[in-house]
Write a structure and sequence with these properties.
Blueprint lengths: L2 H67 L3 H28 L3 H30 L7 H81 L19 H46 L6 H16 L3 E8 L6 E8 L10 E2 L4 H9 L3 E3 L9 E2 L4 E2 L3 E8 L4 E9 L5 H137 L8 H31 L8 E4 L3 H16 L2 E6 L6 E4 L1 H17 L5 E8 L2 H5 L9 E9 L21 H7 L5 H11 L3 E7 L3 E10 L5 H9 L9 H4 L10 H12 L6 E5 L3 H13 L3 E5 L2 H9 L6 E5 L7 H10 L8 E5 L6 H8 L3 E4 L4 H13 L1
Parallel strand pairs: 10-12, 16-17, 16-18, 18-19, 19-20
Antiparallel strand pairs: 1-2, 1-8, 2-3, 4-7, 5-6, 7-8, 9-11, 12-13, 13-15, 14-15
Helix pairs in contact: 1-2, 1-4, 2-3, 3-4, 5-8, 6-8, 8-9, 8-18, 9-14, 11-14, 19-20
Length: 933
Amino acid sequence: MGFKKKQMLGFGLILLFLAILLSFMMFTLNNLKSSMTEIVENRYEKVQASMEIRQLFSRSDREILFAANDANKEERAESLEIINENHSLIESKIAGLSGSLTKAKAKQLLKEFETQYASYSITEAEIIQKIKSGNSSDNLSSLMDDQREKRTKVISTMDDFKDYQEGVMKDTLSNSKQTYEDMIGFVIFAVILSILVISVTVVWMIRSTSKDLQSITKVIKNIDFKNLSVIPRIPVRTTDEIGDIAKSFNDLAESLEIYNRKEKDFTEKISEQNWIQTRVADIATMYQRIVDVEVLADRFITRLAPMMGASIGAFYVKRGEGVDMRFVKLASFAGDGEDSGRREFRLGEGLIGQCALEKKSKVIEDIPEDFQLVTTGLGEVNPKSIVIAPVIFEDEVVAMVELASLEAFTKLQKTFLNQVLDTLGITINNVEGRMEIERLLKESQAQTEELQAQSEELQSQSEEMQAQSEELQTQAEELRMINEQLEERNRETEEKSKELQVAKLNLEKQAEELKLSSKYKSEFMANMSHELRTPLNSILILSEMLSDPNDSNLNEEQQEFARVINSSGQDLLTLINDILDLSKVEVGKLEVVFDEMNLSELPELLHRNFDHVAKKKNIDFIIEKSKNVPDIFFTDEQRFQQILKNLLSNAFKFTEKGSVSVQIKKADEENVAQWIQTKGASNWVEIKVTDTGIGIPKEKQKLIFEAFQQGDGATMRKYGGTGLGLSICREFAKLLGGWVIVDSEEGQGSTFTFFIPSMPEGFKNVDEAIAASPEVAAANHEDSAAPFGDQGEPDAGMMDEEDRDKAKPFCNKTVLVVDDDHRNIFALKNALKHEGMEILTAENGFECLELLEKGNNIDVILMDIMMPGMDGYETMTRIREQSKFEDLPIIALTAKAMKGDREKCLKAGASDYVSKPLKLDQLLSVLRVWLTN
């Protein structure tokens, strides 16, 4: 069945069921309409008519009673008129009902009603007549009784008629309801049946259609569009439109297969033609600029053999004419010396000679087993195919080509060979022509040159004398000009050499002056350090001793004086260290050691060192560290901490209320690049120190980074300070590869941002600067070198037992103090006596050696370096030269500490090294170590 017929049949069945359903519904509705019409228009009207008759009858009866008993004459007349009207209406109603009744019982009841009403009407007429005659009610009683009896019968009959009609109406209504219910049931059944029939029809249509379409889709999906040589076919199961589609697809597939085959054949032919043309063009290009037949033969066979897939080949060219004509081998491919083919042949000799004679190509496929020609490193191989072809020019063989292959030559290769050989004859003829022309040209040139040489020989002889004289004159003139130029250049060179020499001497003199100035500055800074630290050493030691409440006899106020002296001395020491650090930075010789440090410990370290300051000033101290900040960081930890100490000290100093906060986060390299070069750093960290202090005016924000500068004089008077802290911060930051910037508003607080890179490799230029020359150096003082020291006082109760244990090594020990400054001797003498030690003193090296020679039982020597007469270096060297003093502990003490002094002291014989001003705890710790050892 066709697709169209299926669609028509399916939709036809659906429409048929819908038409049947609608017809039944119309029929049922018409029945309901008829029943309702009968109820409304027939039964209801009859019941209504019977009710109206009864009402008229009852009204007439009331009017008779009224006229007979209570009415006056006018009222009686009016009542009689009403009775007559009612009588007429009752008769007309009865006539109307009589014409519309169809039921026998209804007709019977109406007939009885008419009979009884006629009898009642006669009695009523008699009563009316007597009322008109003026009889009283007593005279009418018998008639009224008779009238009342008849009225009862009439009313009873009329009620029966009404009840009958109402019963019929109820039956009709019940039938209508039943009909309606039956119709509803049938409609539901019909709808369900229609749905089933429609569903079955639709499913049948879809399945029958989709099955065919799925078979078509499956075949189309299985098509390999990359290979259209074989296309699957759709089986034709039907003769409908889908079957037509399958037939059309199969026809299309067949057409595509034919087209694909033709396209492949065409492509293959084009590819073969391109292959041939490309190689022909390649060989034709090779012909260019060849002027020798042997070169042509060698290049041709070398290029042709691989293109033909040949394993061996030979190229022969015709030589001679007539009986002397022969073909000589000029080139071969993969030949085997003399055994590789014939050296030459004549026309008709062998197959190759026969091919030359016949001017035809020949391909040999059946090659004997003993024909061994192709040679490899492992042996010889039989070729499978041999081709012999002539090269023809103007119907004459000018050359022969023979090729052998391990595979059979293809048709394509043979076609290619023929096309190549077609142009080769012309090329050979052209090359031979050019060779002949070149030969003739050379002969002609040789003859011309010979004649010209002979003609010119006489002319040259005649002109030789004149040319020689002119040449000598020209050479003399040239020599004179060259000499003048050389003299001028020599003068210029000498002048430039003198200028360069003067400039060199000036530069050397300036360099020497700079070197001398640097040396003087270094010596001055070292001497200043010594001269300042030497008295400071005594001040700090003695003030520390006096301020100790456990060991001092001073009262509390005097001890406070001593603490103030000690604190002032420490401030002076810090100022000296800052000046020396700044000096070292300015000359570029401050030692910077890049090493690994742990940034995760930084917040705890800052809290430990500044929480007590914040608590004392009643301000908040907040530290925030971002999660992306690396824990491991490469920089100079000492300088890094010193920068943070200076920034935080300034923040707390200038903040009276509010807060000081530190924010540590990973810096954005693009943001850092606007301030400083970012090359060479593995990553950057940004540390912001923010306070709510007095702030800095905009015009002063550059000035504060200069040495000895503060915001203004009022600030210096109120808060104190030297103005070196921020200058040192920025210089140290530059040494570490970073930078410090400020953002502040007067009265609102300040934010100092410290950018610092992580430098695992450090700075090469810093290392070179350090190694360049001796530098100005302050002592490697531990107090200033460790920016975040423990600033708390030890608990006395916890130290009692410890102090007693530590004091034991000093009891009955003899120490020799060698120093030219009586103040230092006095301070050390009192400090060490307090520890229970015996003190010997010497003011120079000579006295030290004399005391040692006297045999004093000395346990340790404290040796000053800078002394008159014999300094500490020479003294220690002489002591160590004596074998009995090899193990004697010598601790070097100096206030003039230059770079390398520690190594110099140890090399001279010192056991340890301590810089001035001394810290008593540090000195006692060093003594304890060497005395116990």
